[in-house]
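Lecture notes, structural biology module. Today: joint structure prediction for complexes of two components.
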Amino acid sequence: MDDAYIRTLSLDEKLAFLKIFCKLIKADGSIDAEEISFLKSMAARYGVDNATMVGIIKSADSIDCMAEARHITNRQHALELIKELCFLANIDDDLDDNELDIVIDVARVMGVEDDRVVLINRWVLDTLILNKTGNVILERDNG
Amino acid sequence: MDRESLKRTLKEQAVPLDEAVRQKINYLLSDDAFAPAPESEPVVDDNMSFADAFGSVPTPAPTAKPTLSPLQEKAASFAEHKQSMAEKIAALRGISDVSAMYARHNKP
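The predicted structure, tokenised, for the full assembly:
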């Protein structure tokens, strides 16, 4: 995924992103290897240290996603957050109702239209399929 | 859009990724992925008569099929092509190669 938008995020926005990701990961009650790997890579991409990330994960149950989403007032950042949430929700082949509730709640708090959420989700799925296809064809280990 | 409709739409979009990847690879292996472009229209010479360029105008028979517009013809042709592609994917062309590819990829 394109990282250019991360450089434009404030520290508060980065922390809000990571907290919402944690909440989504725990939403279906289980955390698989791909989700943990994704969360670790996201923390590294956002320049957040391990201690901060561990603190976020430990307090995931008390995170209020909608309050965190109110930190995101920039339209571009809001769309990127929805994109990342759709990626995270679809990567484990198990789209949980609780995960969808978080995506919808966060989108609506940030003023992202339902139709736009549908479009972003479709594009994320197409991207996931294309990337995984390339990994299989090129016999990459992270397929 | 109400909340339940939105949730339903998002759920309907979800696909098992491994199966989608398998279908994608099958498609890439099929002939349809590399179908040749349609033949170009014949060049019309300015010196040609109408009859030479386009032939005589046929009188449609009373029971002839209605003439389709170019756009309708393209749409019908694409629908046939899409159906043909779907049938080929369903027939799992080159399945042994794809299975071997998957076996190598998913090796523990």
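Point to remember: Chain B is about 55% helix and 0% strand.
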